[in-house]
Amino acid sequence: MAKINYKKQIKQILTEIVGSMFVAAAIYNFALNADFPMTGFSGISIILYHLFKLPIGLSSILLNIPVTLVCYKLLGKKFLFSSIRCMLISSIFMDYVAPLFPVYAGSRLLAALCTGVIGGIGYAMIYMVNSSTGGMDFITLSVKSINPHIPLGKIVLASDVIIVLIGGILFGDIDGVIYGLIVSFLFSTVIDKMMYGINAGKLTLIVTDHGKMICDLIDEITARGSTILEGQGGFQGDKKQVVMCACSNKEMYQIQTAIREADPSSFMIILESNEVHGEGFHMLKIGEKQ
User: What's the whole-model pTM score?
Assistant: First the structure.
């Protein structure tokens, strides 16, 4: 029997609580009065009600049953139980905590912006601990499990846009569709920035005659490892060493400043790195079976 990591478990639950607070605030305190087309299973249930007069509660249950079974098979028991727990937490915040705070009743555009940003932060926090709020999240994370190369925000965007467009066409609210698309785009952008931006950083290639000195300097300043590659000048054919190092934005500034002083004749290239995995960098597990 696997030993339970209580520290990790407590951290996951706390993250789910904070994420649920953001999601509840986005939906109840900003989106509710703005009357955007609903996304997720709520949006699908409303569409089915208008098309076939199927009760919204019943259709939600009918939609969740097969999705839950598929989720269990693809993502595992641990993810399913985490999602059920997070579903209950988010429901409590939505029904009992969010109503304690004022509901925004101003511009629909500002409501859409706040809904997208605040809700995106909340969903990203929940996804980052490999959990979900159930419903449509089961589908998006199952798709992510089958296609791990696709950013999660893009999957969320695709599903939300389809539901928003169908709902907007059925209800004839063109303005609502536009605001709903803004919310969906912000959800996708914020989720991807938070989830994948955590592993983003800089990559530098330093062409120098003093590779070992540069490596020692990087280690002294940032405690980061580096790699020496053999290079050759294209014009004169001189042998050169190329020091490669991945680090954070702050660390790259420190490295850049130190190398200018220590080796002014070196040639330094700085690149953006969307994701860095390995020792010293955080590895996210999203939509993986547990």
Answer: 0.73
**Is the domain of 192 the same as that of 205?**
no
Query: Is the same domain home to 49 and 142?
Result: yes
Structure tokens at 22: 């953001």
226 and 254 in a single domain? The answer is: yes
Tokens standing for residue 198: 């955590």
Residue 206 exposed, middle or buried by CB count within 10 Å (0-12, 13-18, 19+): buried
Which tokens belong to 232?
């050759």
Whether the CB-CB separation of 127 and 152 falls below 8 Å is answered with yes
Task: Name the domain count of the chain.
Answer: 2
The amino acid occupying position 224 is: R
Note whether residue 289 is domain-resident: no
pLDDT tens digits, 41-99 = 766 776 777 678 777 556 666 777 787 777 777 777 888 888 888 888 888 888 888 88
Angle formed at CA 247 by CA 214 and CA 208, multiple of 5 degrees = 25
Q: Are residues 53 and 143 in the same domain?
A: yes
How far is residue 43 from each of residues 51, 130, 159, measured CA to CA in Å? 12, 24, 11
- Does residue 173 share a domain with residue 52? yes
Show the domain range for 151. Answer: 7-197
Q: Residue 206: which residues within 8 A CB-CB, separation 6 or more?
A: 214, 242, 243, 244, 245, 259, 266, 267, 268, 269
As given in the structure block, the two tokens for residue 120 are 């995106």
Are 169 and 42 in a shared domain?
yes
DSSP assignment of 213-245, as one string? HHHHHHHHHH----EEEEEE-TTT--EEEEEEE
Alpha-carbon distance 85 to 21, whole Å? Answer: 14
Residues 90 and 222 in one domain: no
- The CATH number of residue 244's host domain is 3.30.70.120
Q: What pLDDT, in 10s, does the model give residues 110-157? A: 999 999 999 999 999 998 888 888 778 878 877 877 887 788 778 888
